[in-house]
Specification:
253 residues, 8 strands, TIM Barrel, 40% helix, alpha/beta
Length: 253
Amino acid sequence: MTPPADDTSLIPEHRERMAARLDEVLARLDAAAQQVGRDSSEITVLLATKTRTPAEIAVAVELLRERGRRAAVGENRAQEIAKHADPLLVDSTVPRHFIGRLQTNKARDVVAFAEMIHSVDREGIADALERRAETAGLTREVLVQVNTSGEESKGGFAPTVEAIAPIVERLRASEVLRPVGLMTIGANSSDSGEVRSSLRMLRELRDRTREQLGAPELEQLSMGMSGDLEIAVEEGATIVRVGSAIFGARPAV
């Protein structure tokens, strides 16, 4: 019997291509970590699973675990959460994250899905997430999104302790939301120096915030994608988001 066209977990050629791409990504990650004396096995590879099938996601998670790496899956569109109820994924113990800009009317779905939510970029989102988490009886880890590049197209708080202190303290006071770090999207630039500056800014802001607010729990730095992976690792990322570099190009829509 011929397997369904999208059941890529049963197609050896697809698995082999994904494994090769994954090994290239891990080699890049390892080299960057070694450059600054970090242990690359402690960095979470967050699979950006937008448009990916349950079978593709299941294969990528399996391959990462075979290589002894920390894996997580991340959706950035609430309408794609439903695919994680597929039999290939529903019993998976891989941590699930939400990494996209969040609308308040989707807070219930996101709270039900994600153990960590990366995109707390305004007070209203914190309020919506808290209400939904309280109703569901759930505790969720959250990251405060910071706009370190200054680009108007990106959400997030200004990159100063004064700007993020109120939201951090508001989250620390919550019984259901646990702030565990900061997130940013690097500068959209071909200038590696500009990209590095935008990512380094997040680490330095995290360190100052921990010190000034007495908040050692702010450990996580979610930053870096396929194109700026090395810079992000060198600048201290604990979570890197990788999609097409592992899955391949997204199908045309």
